[in-house]
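Researcher: Excuse me, tokens okay?
***
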Amino acid sequence: MRSFLHESLQAPLMVKISHRIEYAGLSVARALLQRMSLDRGTAFSAAMARPLSPTLRRRTFRNLRLALPDLSQDAQNRIVSGMADNLVRCAVEYLHLAEIRDTPDRIATTGIEHLEEARKAGRGAVLVSGHLGNWEAIRAACARVDWTPAIIYRRFNNLQFDAESQRLMRAFDAPIFHKGRSGTLGMLRHIRKGGAVLILSDQRFAGAPEIPFFGIPAKTALAPAELAKQYGAALLPVRGIRRGRASRFDVTIDAPLHIANDDMAPYDTMQEINRRLEAWIRETPDQYFWLHNRWGAKKDRPTRPAQ
């Protein structure tokens, strides 16, 4: 769990003039979108953001070429356009989390019994996923059975953005932790008491071991498997996939992964999680957040091993 405990913030936490301008823009957009229904607001925002796709292409093509080298240029373009659409919809959906939770046909859930079994056993649960589809749909599905997982995330450099994000995420009654020492300790206490937590494990963590992801070594935190092993919590791979271009989701909770007792167990378990996440991404690549610096800085990026 070293990468969780020692990850530091990458920018000073101060309110800058640029932050105030950014937040003013957010406030205007929020006021406009709150006057719209969920479906109308997401469709409108996706249409407005469509011109941004070329900018995103420049930042994501190298990741796509590394992970999916056999794709044509047209296929890459479609994936990046779909990614932009999905991200904008996710952002607007934060304004409607309670509606997504409470409207029956917004979420179809498979495997909720695995979560229920962990709760009945008093074991706690570590739900592990990635930045695929809408991860808040996972928390909404769990909230329907009154066991919303806590979530840990990297604090926004813009403190006003961060406060607004926390306010929106608190639509679900569950703790919210910042990455860093205090947040990690809070998460540990939560799991030790039998709580559930959602961890998005697809980000690069300095100092973490390299585990294959799309066949390429990627620094991957062992924390999800280590936490489950240490506290006897159920380790549940989970995903929340968008249905088409709508705010409707298929949430799938897989059966708990078995974690062996040997020293290599956390590594082996996270290797399986990376394999599973990769398979999910291959099914819906346009719903994945390809902007992550998953394989390191450009100068440090590995090349794909020869086949």
Remarks:
- Residues 13-297 form one domain.
